[in-house]
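Newbie here. two chains, one complex. Structure please?
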Amino acid sequence: MEIDPFIFRLSIFILSIFIGYYVVWSVTPSLHTPLMSVTNAISSVIIVGAIIAGLAGNSDTIFNTSSIFGFLAISLAAINIFGGFLVTQRMLAMYKKKKKDK
Amino acid sequence: MLSANLSAIFYLISGVLFILALRGLSSPETSRQGNFFGILGMIIAITVTFLSIGNFSTGFVVVLIFLLIGGLIGAFIAYKIPMTAMPELVAGFHSLVGLAAVFVAIAAFLNPEAFNLGYPGNIKLGSLIEMSIGAAVGAITFSGSIVAFLKLQGIMSGSPITFKGQHPLNALILISIIVLTYLLCSTQSSNLFWILLVVSFLIGFLLIIPIGGADMPVVISMLNSYSGWAAAGIGFTLENTALIITGALVGSSGAILSYIMCKGMNRSFFNVILGGFGATEQSAGEKNKEQKPVKSGNADDAAFLMKNASSVIIVPGYGMAVAQAQHALREMVDTLKKNDIKVSYAIHPVAGRMPGHMNVLLAEANVPYDEVFELEEINNDFANADVAFVIGANDVTNPVAKTDPQSPIYGMPVLDVEKCKSVLFVKRSLSPGYAGIDNDLFYKENTLMLFADAKKMTEDITKNL
């Protein structure tokens, strides 16, 4: 009997929770705010679903109800992706060590 | 057109890059590289999606236009946002992830063929369950984050909104979500799908309104977690590894942050979620208000004390963020350092309105991160320090948390500020902090209250140094 592919996805999911658990515990508390903004950015990889939905219509019906929701989701996710990564970048650039010369 | 197997491999790569992005945050040195990995992972995921569909017709242009519009808005916000508004921004971003998850779920429900999930009215059972979970959690994330955003912005009052029968009502709605999901899966009715969405939006709203302003660090972390689970739900629907991995990462990240924040307040997660904290304790604080003598001073006194100190510990709190005093504070510290006074910063885990809030503000003001310490690292140093300069913090310094088992904050880890030779307290008035309880520290022999706006007081002290 074959294993349902769902089980493989579930395995990936469960193992990723454990990876997340250990990786996030090792994040230094002073970077918790950038952690939140970067997790925001990466969770917007949901944009792949939005793109699939947006491109689902054929050439004569680019806009149907389903694809319009897809297009809107693309914009929302894009705000997060660009906003999230850039604001994280901006924050991380501010974390500086003490200058050696006095 | 990319084969399904090849694109799956690329999605896996982008998932791994996202793990590395979070891994980078273990130290400020590697963090920028981590962020780069994150961006790379995102570019791979998006490119692969385009290639695997291989449809570069008019629809492709429309997609690019929408992508560009969102990207420009996002970039604009990222450059314009002041660091003090970070909690609002993050709450806002969470709401967008939630809404995007809802929209993708709607699109998949209306056009399941595009996602290989079956046909309208006959969607694969597993996919329908995953879709409903993704949509419901996404909707809760959206409306909950909107409430958090409004509270943080001050548009909505930060005090908890409670009413009779609140908890039974919420429980009822949560049960109805489960029942609706079950019915939706057995009947495939689109009406039920819409009702499920509406009810989920409603519960997100109702869950957050009873939670007070200072519990926002927990709420934001919790919504962070929800946005991850929503993404994972959609990831299962789309059978997309990158999305499943990311959802799990973000979900556990938010959960851990919530845990850390709850621990910082010595409260159970459940207790925070049920809400109503500040409101119920307020009356208790009013009751035992006796007039106790308080020593208050001015900038000149404070400058005198600090000039004669050899080490000073600064305890920033939300008040510093509100007064935007971080730059003035750093200037004061620079002057102190010129006088060979050792200065360090002590950060309580729940200082501010989100995890790490104070650290970002200090970093913005060019404070080197190796002068900034966490509670456990620095708490023993207070006994050897000459002056503790408390700016905009209150409850996190209250010794009552260690002494009075009756106190609502009893058991909460606090900074041992009272062990310092002298304590300077910058505050606008004697009013109690968020927990609604008096701070014994105000009336201690060695405490000098500086009643003023945090920024103005800090500037005045610098002038007098």
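Moderator note: Chain B touches chain A through 116 residues (CB under 8 Å). Chain B has 18 helices and eight strands. Thread marked as resolved.
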